[in-house]
Each structure stands twice: as structure tokens, then as C-alpha cells.
Amino acid sequence: MKTAKTNKTAYCSMAAIRYARVLFDMELPEDVIGGTEEIFSEAPALVSVLESPIVTKDQKHKVIDRIFDERIRNFLKVATDYGKAGIMQEIFRAYHQYKNEMAGIVTAHLAYVVPPTEEQKKGMEQFVRREFHAKGVVWEMEERPSLIGGFLLLVNGREYDYSMQGRLKRLEQKLTWR
């Protein structure tokens, strides 16, 4: 059971998904991908340079050659040539999601008012594994006081709403539909 940092923008564009699948198919070592991802997250000015219309294609390629591992350079050059340097973080996020999907691991987003106990979390993990035929679960945890109580579980587009806010909304709908 892994717990991931909460990521408000968990959805990825189709372009990011396509590039992520190509990156996955390249079968690069994790240290190369992780190192590249780290460089992009720590150097936002790099993205500005690679996106700039003023910087020539050859200059961008030279920057990539100087900074990145040779095994990922061609991928970055193609992505930059097609104007995708600005979505590199999104591409890496889609890569990790796709990699987990291929390994049979699902991502479950849990919004709560009070953090669940380990026992509750294990019970939810068993439910998710059984329901989605998953080998593992990666958790994204988010504290959300607006739920009033209970929790909201999102997995593969399915929503399981056991929050007080959700129950009140359902009760309101029942009362207004009569």
C-alpha cells in the first residue's frame, strides 16, 4: 500500500497520455526518468527556454544535450519540437499512472474529514482490490472539511460517497422530487 501526495490535477490530456505511453514503451531505467522529472520540477526556467519561440530548434537541442541523459534526449527533442515541453510534468504524471495500470495497480483518491485509521484503510484497500481486480492500490489522500463527516472515495471514474454532505444532498433530492 503506497500513499501518494495529493494531486489536484490528476487528469491528464490526451497528448500527455500519448507521450507517456511512448515513454513507457522506451523501457528506460527508472533513474533516468526520475532524474529527468526532477530536473523539470526544479528548473521551471528550463521549460520557458524550451517553449520559447525566440530560441531556435538547434539551440533547444543543444540545451537538452547538455542537461539530460543520452537515453532520453531524443524523446525530449521530439516533445520540444512539437511544443510539448510545457506539459512535461503532466507527461510524467501520465507515465506513472500508465505504468501502475500496466502493473495492475489502481489509484484511489480518498477525501476525508478525519484521517482513516490503518484498519479502515486496509478495509478500503481490500474493497478496491476486489472491486477493480487490482494487485495493489496507490492512495491519494486529501483532507476536505466541507464533507462535514465521512469520506469520498474515487477510483477509476467511480465515486463512492459516504460523506455527510453527500447524504444531505441525496436526502434533499428525495424530498424535492416528491
UniProtKB/TrEMBL annotation:
Gene3D superfamilies linked to this entry: N-terminal domain of the delta subunit of the F1F0-ATP synthase
Locations listed in the record: Cell membrane; Membrane
Topology relative to the membrane: Peripheral membrane protein
Pfam families per the UniProt record, alphabetical: OSCP
Keywords, alphabetical: ATP synthesis, Cell membrane, CF(1), Hydrogen ion transport, Ion transport, Membrane, Transport
Entry's family note: Belongs to the ATPase delta chain family.
Entry function: F(1)F(0) ATP synthase produces ATP from ADP in the presence of a proton or sodium gradient. F-type ATPases consist of two structural domains, F(1) containing the extramembraneous catalytic core and F(0) containing the membrane proton channel, linked together by a central stalk and a peripheral stalk. During catalysis, ATP synthesis in the catalytic domain of F(1) is coupled via a rotary mechanism of the central stalk subunits to proton translocation. This protein is part of the stalk that links CF(0) to CF(1). It either transmits conformational changes from CF(0) to CF(1) or is implicated in proton conduction.
NCBIfam families to which the protein is assigned, alphabetical: ATP_synt_delta
Name under which the protein is recorded: ATP synthase subunit delta
Species the sequence originates in: Faecalicatena fissicatena
